[in-house]
Amino acid sequence: MTDQITYPDVVNFAVPLFIAAILIELAWIVTKKRGGRYETRDALTSLIMGAGNVASGIVLGFVAWGFFMALWAITPLDLGTAWWVVVLCFVLDDLRYYWVHRFGHRIRWVWASHVNHHSSQHYNLTTALRQTWTGTFTFMMVVRAPLILLGFHPAMVLFVGGLNLIYQFWIHTEAIGRMPRWFEWLMNTPSHHRVHHGRNARYLDANYAGVFIIWDRLFGTFVPEQDDEKVDYGLVHNLGTFNPLRVAFHEWLAIFRDMAQPGLTLRQRLAYAVAPPGWSHDGSRQMTPEIKAAHLARHPEDAGTPGFD
Amino acid sequence: MPLSILIPMVVIGIAGIAVLLHLLGLSRPRRFDDEAAARAAWLREFPANPPARVILCHDRSAALIETVQGAGVVWPMGADSTARPLAGARIAPAAGGIIIHLPDFTAPRIRLRLDADEARQWLSKLEQTA
């Protein structure tokens, strides 16, 4: 069994490219007066969240790595390091990403970590870097377990995960409209991912893909961007702070406050952690289906259109 | 990548981008064009609770919203806006306006710039409704 395999830490090596691409996008927006928006404090918060994500990986990365190496020690399978194994690992890891991302929007415990990525009301390349500090605590590393048990080396799994993250950087932009039709059919694109960041009722809980949009088409979560409905970015209830600490931890605190309410059953306390965001024991809040239903009550003409079918 | 390279690159990159954005004039907070814009900003957050009355402050940086479910406020978040109901709020006068303290970790303190008459009017209204 191969233990000593190393791959480059591609995300860290991509940092200069991230900075250069942000400057290019900014120059484009400023000179062309279109293609997106930037605001100082919003961008600063996003960039600090990105730096914090790298720092949390350095500090807490040993947890996931230890878990993966424990799995690697017990699996009898080793697929090696041939190029086609790396490609297969990339595709299967993207399927893994789709489900982790879907869980991230449908399980409040995981949403508590992911929510910060959606907390900007802007959509530009800095938004891509507004990443979680608390991913380790979601325990979503377990979704990678099948890959390692199938014989993909943990270093390879993390390497392709890094490539996946880098791919997703460039799709966080309004400067690119639509790509060629074949590309839009197969790949996640700025257009598809704009939908994912929308707080419009139509666009909620759609387009979870990382690299290949085909997972959304396959599992019924694909919603195309509508020319007649501009994406409104942010959260259903937007934050009133740019403080990175509040951005990073607000939903965790909200979960614990909800769970600690007096008079709840154990089942209700657990549901505040694992039910979809917006669940409440007394029905006083709205989840995605209720938000969509309320929208259709105000706009019945939207019934049967993408996102409401 | 060694941390001795990564850390300075990240720090300089973040600081440089922030300074550049500020120098480009992209730090200006949103101003609501009129009461209709403030109303739309409220409805964007609370579509099921339409304003009965909108009181836009003189520099158009915030608006007090009255609804059948109680008072609320809309204010700029950078170039955008957000809104909150004022249930449970503590309101205090401050230099150049008022400060609203909310029992909300995501919007703990809202500083509104109001002139002296406006501040008195808002304080009076908010003390009645919050």
Topology:
The complex is a heterodimer of chains A (309) and B (130).
Chain A: H1 10-13, H2 15-32, H3 40-74, H4 83-106, H5 108-114, H6 125-128, H7 145-149, H8 154-169, H9 181-186, H10 190-196, H11 214-219, H12 244-259, H13 266-274, H14 288-298
Helix pairs in contact in A: 4-5, 4-8, 5-12, 12-13
Chain B: H1 3-23, H2 35-45, E1 53-56, E2 63-67, E3 70-77, E4 80-85, E5 90-94, E6 97-101, E7 109-113, H3 116-129
Keywords:
heterodimer, A: 309 residues, mainly alpha, 54% helix, 0% strand, globular, B: 130 residues, alpha+beta, four-stranded antiparallel beta sheet, 7 strands, 29% strand
Written account of the structure:
The complex is a heterodimer of chains A (309) and B (130). With 309 residues, chain A is mainly α. Helix content of chain A is 54%, strand content 0%. Chain A is globular and about 60 Å long. Chain B is of the alpha+beta class. Chain B folds into two domains: 1-28; 35-129. Chain B has helices spanning 3-23, 35-45, 116-129; strands at residues 53-56, 63-67, 70-77, 80-85, 90-94, 97-101, 109-113. In chain B, the strands form two sheets. A four-stranded antiparallel sheet of chain B has the order 1-2-3-4, sandwiched between helices. In chain B, β6 and β7 (109-113) form a beta hairpin. Chain B starts with a helix and ends with a helix. The model of chain B has no long low-confidence stretch (mean pLDDT 93). Chain A binds chain B through residues 9, 12-13, 15-16, 19, 22-23, 26, 30, 37-44, 47-48, 51, 54, 58, 121-122, 126, 232, 234, 237-242, 246, 250, 253-254, 294-295, 298, and chain B through 1, 3, 6, 9-10, 13-14, 17-18, 20-22, 24, 26-27, 44-45, 47-48, 75, 77-82, 84, 102, 104-108, 110.
